[in-house]
């Protein structure tokens, strides 16, 4: 009896608990049976303590945070990160490209710009800039029709739209290159470029611009009056649209399927599977590879 008592005390059980178990099972009980009964009593007392605490807590009236935060603090924290506009990247829209796309290349449709701006505003973006050449403020002409021109003035008053400079010299219009404004602002603000243009001439100007345009260009489509960017802006193995628009990803990406051939794969950057060994390598095109090999 005393040996069983000393053994249980060394394991950290209370003396009255051990005594109750030994009185119940008898002094001749096996040590394993005694321990099993002690464990059962310990679990029972813990569950009773938790139920008592929950009943006490249920009588308290919470003040301050909403019930959703009390019930699921992790969920509320994630929602807070998702809805935080500070985590969203600045948006720089190529106004001419968007307006001509919405006008089916036949006219400059200012409504297309408004649709694109509204889409990003609904997503919670606050830092949105649209660049449009200043000569688009002039009266519409048959060779360059402009529709819903009042939208440009409206967006300019809201400090969303910026006109790039232009002037007339001896009856000839002199315009600044608006694409350079777009890429420069997006690069400096670490933002997203919204355009279907690849800016190949600007990619050749600066190597850092080339890398930036490849990684931060968001293309889109118009389905009637619906602005639709792709769900996978950088391809099937790239980030989702939600994470692409954020500084810090908050939604876990789907697990990428590794290539069954591994390092022996000969498809190069055209392989549809994931190559972990190429994660930090730039996905160069065939033309770029030929240029590099020619230099070497």
UniProtKB/TrEMBL annotation:
Pfam families: RNase_Zc3h12a, UBA_6. GO terms for cellular component: cytoplasmic ribonucleoprotein granule; nucleus. Keywords: Endonuclease, Hydrolase, Magnesium, Metal-binding, Nuclease, Zinc, Zinc-finger. Transmembrane segments: none annotated. Gene3D superfamilies: 3.40.50.11980. Residues 253-278 form the C3H1-type domain. GO terms for molecular function: hydrolase activity; mRNA binding; RNA endonuclease activity; zinc ion binding. A zinc finger (C3H1-type) spans 253-278. CDD domains: PIN_Zc3h12-like. Residues 45-69 are annotated as: Disordered. The keyword Metal-binding applies. It comes from the Eukaryota. Its cofactor is Mg(2+). The keyword Phosphoprotein does not apply. Residues 48-59 have a biased composition (Polar residues). Belongs to the ZC3H12 family. PANTHER family: N4BP1-RELATED, RIBONUCLEASE ZC3H12B-RELATED. This is Putative ribonuclease ZC3H12B. It comes from Cariama cristata.
């Amino acid at each position: 009896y005393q040996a069983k008592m000393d053994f249980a005390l060394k394991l950290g059980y209370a003396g009255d608990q051990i005594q109750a178990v030994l009185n119940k099972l008898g002094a001749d009980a096996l040590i394993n049976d005694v321990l099993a009964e002690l464990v059962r009593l310990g679990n029972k007392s813990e569950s009773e303590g938790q139920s008592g605490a929950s009943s006490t807590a249920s009588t308290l009236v919470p003040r301050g945070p909403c019930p959703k935060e009390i019930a699921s603090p992790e969920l509320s924290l994630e929602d807070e990160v998702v809805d935080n506009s500070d985590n969203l990247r600045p948006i720089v829209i190529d106004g001419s490209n968007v307006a001509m796309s919405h006008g089916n290349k036949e006219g400059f449709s200012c409504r297309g710009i408004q649709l694109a701006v509204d889409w990003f505003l609904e997503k919670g973006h606050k830092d949105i800039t649209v660049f449009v050449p200043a000569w688009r403020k002039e009266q519409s002409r048959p060779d360059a029709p402009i529709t819903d021109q009042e939208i440009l003035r409206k967006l300019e008053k809201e400090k969303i739209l910026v006109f790039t400079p232009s002037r007339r010299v001896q009856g000839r219009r002199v315009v600044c290159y608006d694409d350079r404004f777009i890429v420069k602002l997006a690069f400096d603000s670490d933002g997203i470029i919204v355009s279907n243009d690849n800016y190949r001439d600007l990619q050749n100007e600066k190597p850092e611009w080339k890398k930036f345009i490849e990684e931060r260009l968001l293309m889109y489509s118009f389905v009637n009056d619906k602005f639709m960017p792709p769900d996978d802006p950088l391809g099937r193995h790239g980030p989702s649209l939600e994470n692409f628009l954020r500084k810090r990803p908050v939604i876990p990406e789907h697990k990428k399927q590794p290539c069954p051939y591994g390092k022996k794969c000969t498809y190069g950057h055209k392989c549809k599977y994931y190559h972990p060994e190429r994660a930090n390598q730039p996905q160069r095109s065939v033309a770029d590879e030929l240029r590099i090999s020619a230099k070497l």
